[in-house]
Write a structure and sequence with these properties.
With 473 residues, the protein is an alpha/beta fold. The chain folds into 3 domains: 2-272, Spore Coat Polysaccharide Biosynthesis Protein SpsA, Chain A (Alpha-Beta Complex), CATH 3.90.550; 276-342, no CATH class; 363-467, Jelly Rolls (Sandwich). Helices cover 22% and strands 33% of the residues. It has 11 helices and 30 strands. The protein has a 6-stranded antiparallel β-sheet, with no helix packed on it. Strand 10 (229-231) and strand 11 form a beta hairpin.
Length: 473
């Protein structure tokens, strides 16, 4: 059996404002109904493939669980990175986890931000590459390039006629993210494949590669794993040891240096949804080449992407040519499509200027559901809260704010001090500052609550937790 390892800790800043640090692109439906993460999970399910191991960050762990539940696909393990350190430590963490259970474990590394529509064709390519991986090779999957893109690594083959071979091929050299001139030369040479960031190897082989080429990473990740602990089904790792690992991609740390690297050409449909222009290219368009998503009206628009992420916000475009307009409940991006690659720099500028929307979404996901801010002023804030069936907020109090809850839908069980009571729609309760309280959903339908906060400070860090079913501090 091969164990898929799905990496889903990235941030996807070039797809802002739909993708943010609190809900990055791999968890957002960009093309089709499901998210890219869910597409990766579906790709990783099939004959010869075990339940996946997921590697993600602390803040994303409950999003992972929720999206796995939505597609009825359990994970073999969910490994928590204490902080993002790029792909090399993440892959090694999964390898150490697998080899501890089976010293002959095979692993298929899948980024959660790509789209492969031909699942059967891809699995056939994995099966064809498996014997070489079992023999000790590190297999990278390569895509025939269509343009001189500087965002991908390039695998230069020993023989250019082998770009469409059906078995793994020797690699002359690995060129990671070249400049524009080098990328153009590599494309013109006709002997290169894009590195898809998809790998197949035995856990023992990749650990040996780290031992030879990156012993500092191996030492740090081994120490972090040695002091791991299980928590609500997640496996946490020691943060201080993890922080000693360099933050580096597996391409730079291992693949550029490995003598046992082979490339498996994959001729099927492969898409890296790295920016809005690529989303436009991969989405169904009207006769004028305009893509509309969500509540949108396009009038005399050509070659444009119009997308509203908020069902209550209707976006209208008039006489737009080759533009992208992305609207959410709290931010709007307007730019030519040709500027798609610059959106990441825009996010960096917003962060520099202290703009909250750079990383935080209006709707904040929590393990129990979500909340979104409706309106705020100097000493008040109004939120809408959704609590999933079987979920509850922590037993908590606030030092500097009071809250007033109005139940809109569902039956809410509210704890206030020593009193526990059920509240139906149109009923409400006042929670003074300093009072212990909890909101729980013991029913079968979601609870919707309007919360009005008042006080001198309304930050999310003004929470004292006394009990929490999600083990948050």
């Amino acid at each position: 059996m091969i164990t898929p390892v799905i990496l889903c800790g990235g941030s996807g800043t070039r797809l802002w404002p739909a993708s943010r640090q609190s809900l990055p692109k791999q968890f957002v439906p960009l093309v089709g109904q499901g998210s890219l993460f869910q597409a990766a999970v579906a790709l990783a399910a099939g004959p010869g493939l075990a339940a996946p191991v997921i590697v993600t960050g602390e803040a994303l762990r409950f999003i992972v669980l929720e999206q796995l539940e939505a597609v009825a696909q359990p994970a073999a393990a969910i490994l928590i990175e204490p902080e993002a350190r790029n792909t090399a430590p993440a892959v090694l963490l999964a390898a150490l986890h697998l080899v501890a259970q089976d010293d002959a474990a095979m692993m298929l590394v899948l980024p959660a931000d790509q789209l492969i529509r031909d699942a059967d064709g891809f699995r056939a390519a994995v099966a064809a590459a498996l014997p070489a991986a079992q023999a000790g090779a590190l297999i990278s999957f390569g895509i025939v390039p269509s343009r001189p893109d500087t965002g991908f690594g390039y695998l230069q083959l020993a023989d250019p006629v082998d770009r469409r071979a059906t078995l793994p091929q020797p690699v002359r050299r690995f060129v990671e993210k070249p400049d524009a001139e080098t990328a153009a030369a590599l494309l013109a040479g006709g002997d290169c494949l894009w590195n898809a960031g998809i790998f197949l190897f035995s856990a023992a082989s990749i650990i040996a590669a780290f031992r030879h080429h990156a012993p500092d990473i191996l030492a740090a990740v081994q120490a972090a794993q040695a002091r791991s602990s299980s928590d609500l089904g997640f496996i946490r790792h020691d943060a201080s040891a993890w922080a000693r690992s360099p933050g580096i991609s597996i391409d730079y740390a291992i693949m550029e240096k490995a003598a046992n690297l082979l490339v498996m050409p994959y001729p099927g449909d492969w898409v890296d949804l790295g920016d809005w222009n690529r989303v436009w290219l991969e989405s169904p368009a009207d006769a004028a080449g305009t893509v509309c998503s969500g509540p949108v009206t396009a009038i005399d628009c050509t070659g444009s992407l119009l997308r509203s992420e908020d069902p209550g916000l209707h976006l209208v475009g008039v006489d737009l040519a080759d533009m992208m307009v992305i609207a959410t409940g709290d931010a709007v991006l307007v730019a030519p499509r040709r500027a798609s690659a610059r959106v990441g720099a825009v996010v960096a500028r917003l962060q520099q200027d202290g703009i909250a929307q750079a990383t935080a979404s209006a709707r904040e996901l929590r393990p129990w559901g979500w909340f979104e801010r409706l309106v705020a002023g100097p000493s008040f804030q109004v939120k809408r809260i959704m609590v999933r069936p079987g979920a509850s907020l922590s037993l908590q109090s606030h030092r500097q704010r009071a809250e007033h809850w109005v139940i809109v839908a569902g039956m809410a069980t509210v704890t206030l001090g020593e009193v526990v009571q059920d509240l139906a729609p149109n009923q409400s309760i006042y929670i003074p500052a300093g009072s212990r309280h909890r909101l729980a959903n013991h029913g079968n339908t979601p609870i919707l609550v309007i919360e009005v906060q008042t006080g001198s400070y309304l930050g999310e860090d003004d929470i004292v937790r006394y009990a929490d079913q999600y083990a948050r501090p």
